[in-house]
Amino acid sequence: MKFNIALLAGDGIGPEVINEAVKVSDAIAKKFNHEITWTPALTGACAIDAVGVPYPDETHEICMAADAVLFGAIGHPKYDNDPSAPVRPEQGLLLMRKKLGLFANVRPTFTFPSLIDNSPLKRERIEGTDLVFLRELTGGIYFGEKGRKDGGETAFDNCVYTRVEVQRLAKKGFELAMTRSKKLCCVDKANVLETSRLWRETVQAMEKDYPEVAVSYEFVDAVAMRLVQWPNSYDVLITENLFGDILTDEASVISGSMGLMPSASVGEHTSLYEPIHGSYPQATGLNIANPLATVLSAAMMFEDAFGLKEEAEAIRAVVNKSLEQGIVTEDLVVKGAKPYSTSEVGDWLVANL
C-alpha cells in the first residue's frame, strides 16, 4: 500500500520526536511492503516566523490532500510570555482543527506493566486502567466570542454549543463504547452550566439508540477526583472542549510520564495523530525528549487511518520491549541507570522491529 502523510513537526521538541516516529514508520513500511511519502509543512511558531501566520493556506492544502497527518507540537515561550501578542501558535492549532473538521480528540490512557511503579499513584489504584476520552474539539469556550470591555478592565469568553455538535461527538462515544466494555460516561457541569444541560439532555435522548451501553453522567469535578482515586472504573468518557483539555492532561500522568500517551483527532476530513505533550521548549535541541508518545501516535495512525492492525501491534510491541529493557529517555530512567537520548531510543526501536 502507498500512503501520503503530511508531516507537521511544529515547534520545540516537535521536530525531534517526529523524526523518531518517521524512522519507526519507515521501518514498519519496509517490513510490511508499504510505501510512505512524507510531505513536510509549517505550523505554529515556526510558521509565524516564516510567513506570519500559524497555519498557512499551503499547510492546509497539504493536510487536505494527505491520507493522514502526523503532528509534533506547537508553542514557544516568546508567545507564552507575551499576553498582548496579536498572533499566537495556538491559534494555528485551533484553526487547523476547525478547517479540517477535527471535532473529536481521542485520548487513550493506559498503563505499562513495566512502568506501573513510575506512576505518582499507588499500584493498586491504577492496575488495569484502560480508558479513552473523547473530547469535543471545535466548539465551546475556545471558539466562542471573546474580548475586553470597560476599557480593558473586564474580559469575557463565551461558551457556546449546538445540539448537532454534541450529537456527533456523542455518537462516536457510543460507537467506541460498543467495541469495548459498553460503558460510557458523559462528563459535564449540568448543575451550573446551561451548555452542560444541553450536553446531558442530548446524550440522554441518544441512549435509546444504543440500549446495550450503560451510560453514567458525572460532574467534571467528581471525575477529576475519581481519576486519581479509581481510574480503572472508567472506560469511555465524552466531554466538551475545556473539560476534556484539563482532564486528559490529568489522566496522562497515570501511566508515569506524559511522554507516553498518543492521541488522534478525527472528524470530517484528514485525521491527525499527535502526542499529547506540548513543545517542551526547555529541552529543544538537547536530544532528551521522550519520543514514545509520538511513535505510539504513529501506531494509532496505522491502525485507525489505514486499517493496518498488525503493523500497529508491531510498533506497540517494540515500544513495550524498549520499556521492559530500560531503553528509555531520562524522564523514565530508573535511578542509577543510563538514560538514552531521543535518537538512541528511535534507533533501538528500528533495530528491534
From TrEMBL:
GO terms for biological process: L-leucine biosynthetic process. Its EC number is 1.1.1.85. One of its GO terms (molecular function) is 3-isopropylmalate dehydrogenase activity. Its main location: cytoplasm. Pathway: Amino-acid biosynthesis; L-leucine biosynthesis; L-leucine from 3-methyl-2-oxobutanoate: step 3/4. InterPro entries: IsoCit/isopropylmalate_DH_CS (IPR019818), IsoPropMal-DH-like_dom (IPR024084), Isopropylmalate_DH (IPR004429). Residues 4-349 form the Isopropylmalate dehydrogenase-like domain. Catalyzes the oxidation of 3-carboxy-2-hydroxy-4-methylpentanoate (3-isopropylmalate) to 3-carboxy-4-methyl-2-oxopentanoate. The product decarboxylates to 4-methyl-2 oxopentanoate. Belongs to the isocitrate and isopropylmalate dehydrogenases family. LeuB type 1 subfamily. This is 3-isopropylmalate dehydrogenase. The gene is leuB.
